[in-house]
Amino acid sequence: MKQIYNGRILTPEGWLKGGSVITDGAKIVTIARNELPIVDAERIDANGCDIVPGGIEQHCHGGGGRDFMEGTREAFEVAINAHMQHGTTSIFPTLSSSTMQMIYDAVEATEELMREKNSPVLGLHLEGHYLNIDMAGGQIPENIKDPDPEEYVPLLNGTSCIKRWSTAPELPGTEEFGKFCRAHGVLNAVAHTKANYPEIKAAYEIGFTHANHFFNAMRGFHKSREYKYEGTVESVLDIEDMTVEMIADGIHVPPVMLHMVYKLKGVERTSLITDSLAVAASDSKQAFDPRVIIEDGVCKLADRSALAGSIATMDRLIRTAVQQAGIPMEDAVRMVSETPAKIMHIYDRKGSLQPGKDADIVMYDSEQQLKFVMQMGRVVKNDISETA
After folding, report:
1. Of 74, 155, 160, 317, whose CB count within 10 A is highest?
2. Do 228 and 295 fall into the same domain?
3. Average pLDDT per consecutive 10 residues, the chain (388 residues; last block may be shorter)
């Protein structure tokens, strides 16, 4: 049993000062309203830090020098452990547009890790390869195509580990694909798309309820000849219940736009992601994709025609949201924990500090520097003594 005390605790009711978080094994037992010592409990002094839920990564391609497209258990473990050191306690490993063999290899690695007790891996996210080639961005164009039932039907019939599939909804065959995904419990997200309002609205009706890395690789307000048209961006904003995710590295989306979407969609419908590549949380300067370079704190295609992913980590998302976009700490935390948990339908066990939920707990100091990480009751980072 562990008792975390001497910090302010973010609960669903707001901040609690002078309380304690009590854990037993992989679960939170209670949120006490006092700091009195618990018999036989290991006491962890938060030293004034914010005690908050661990980050849930919905969209991450790799880290620690390894990419999930490698499809091996070793690559997965290196990347996941690297991100855990930065505040991620649950993750949906993400593949960009891949071959079917790469997808099946990743499925095997995901299934193996999900079978392990207290695993941080909650399922696989496929970003592509059913995308609009005109909006490929950093995706591998050779792998992009229209939805193909000869591929996705046996795949989804053969595994339950795929929890999300990001797709361009304007492609032929998307309606059948979206309905098949929904029948298998897979969240559909609009991605790498030029879809207009009628197409977004139709997609929403069949289960495309989420927008992949909002503002990036999607068309906004534009003009054709003398007339003006809404883009994917405005269509998603207009559909009230559609949720969005944003790459909060301060580069993919300007902080003022991050704050604008936070105000328009609200914390309940806005989540933050890294969309990080293998070079995140790594000393490596070489991306998994040889077309990609690292420059100005972000991944770009070598010809600088597009951004290609980030080098961000979960703690950077928090700092960007608070320090650059002016979002309150409690809402920044909710957008990396509570909101993604609700989007991915795991809020019954993740995303908030409540009795009976998983003991995924992190601590930040007053400058939003990460000091402590607990994943399913296991302490994986503890720099709390460095906090003044």
Report:
1. 317
2. yes
3. 98 97 98 95 97 98 96 98 98 97 98 98 98 94 97 98 98 98 98 97 97 96 86 97 97 96 98 95 76 81 84 97 98 98 98 98 98 98 72
Structural domain contains residue 349? no
User: Roughly how many angstroms between the first and final C-alpha of the chain, as a whole number?
Assistant: 26
CA nearest to 166, candidates 129, 195, 122, 137: 129
For 312, residues 6+ apart whose C-beta sits below 8 A from its C-beta are 247, 248, 249, 274, 275, 276, 280, 320
Report the SS3 class of residue 281: coil
CA 160, 189, 75, 105 dihedral sign is positive
Q: Looking at the structure, tell me whether residues 21 and 142 fall in a common domain.
A: no
Distance CA 344, CA 181 (A): 14
CA–CA dist 121, 164 (Å, integer): 13
Is 348 within the bounds of a domain? no
Whether residue 286 is found in the same domain as residue 365: no
Question: In terms of domains, do 365 and 329 share one?
Answer: no
For position 385, what pLDDT does the model report?
A: 72
- 8 Å CB contact between 381 and 85: yes
